[in-house]
Amino acid sequence: MRHGKKFNHLGRTASHRKAMLSNMAASLIQHKRINTTLAKAKELKKYVEPLVTRSKSDSTHNRRMVFSYLQSKEAVTELFREVSVKVGDRPGGYTRIIKTGHRLGDNAEMAMIELVDFNEIYSNAKKEVKKSTRRGRSKATDEEVSKAPIAAIAALAPEAPEALEDPAPEAPEASEAPAPEASEAPESPEADENNEEKEAE
User: Which residues, 6 or more positions from 181, have their beta carbon under 8 angstroms from its beta carbon?
Assistant: First the structure.
């Protein structure tokens, strides 16, 4: 009988489940975010958060205890060097699960699990940037903006007639240029021969 066995076995034997959670926890620590099924994400949350709590006090004993769960030197190093520094002030709740819909093949519920402090979108730094942005303009800026169009119109007003006068004289020159060329165009060789014959007579 399975009385009192309320945690999710994930359809695996105890050794397979333990190995899978160990690998997923190491991947989460190294990559800061992984995609998996919702059931596995919930079990991984329970598995990895006590390890993150242990990483807050860096001692040989804690490193060895975490290594017994992760079985990865790289993951242990990453956890105690980088992750523990970021989560130092956080009293638990180091991971976040976000549902991402259903898988195409078997319609399983999918989710993304991530370390809260490594998310740039929800981080505090972004909120501070938003607070520093100004939505309204100051009075000085409004005055400058209102004066700017007047100054621009005044600057362009004397130039506008000059711009219209310059092309006008050029237009006749362009039309006169072809006229003399047409009148001074050389006559054809046949016309020259006819003129010579008339002169000879």
Answer: none
Mean pLDDT of the chain: 79
Rounding to the nearest 10 degrees, give the CA dihedral for residues 35, 36, 38, 43: -110
Tokens of 112: 């993304």
120-152 pLDDT, tens digit each: 777 665 455 556 666 766 665 556 656 655 655
C-alpha 17/C-alpha 61 separation (Å) is 25
Q: What is the CATH superfamily name and number for domain 14-124? A: Ribosomal protein L17 (3.90.1030.10)
Q: Is 114 exposed, middle or buried (0-12, 13-18, 19+ CB in 10 A)?
A: buried
Task: For residue 96, give the 3-state DSSP assignment.
Answer: strand
Q: Where are the domains of the chain?
A: 14-124
pLDDT, average across residues 50-77: 96
What percent of the chain is predicted at pLDDT more than 90? Answer: 55
Q: For residues 43 and 21, is the Cβ–Cβ distance under 8 A?
A: yes
Which amino acid would we find at residue 136? G
Q: What values do phi and psi take at 83, rounded to 5?
A: -65, -45
pTM value? 0.60
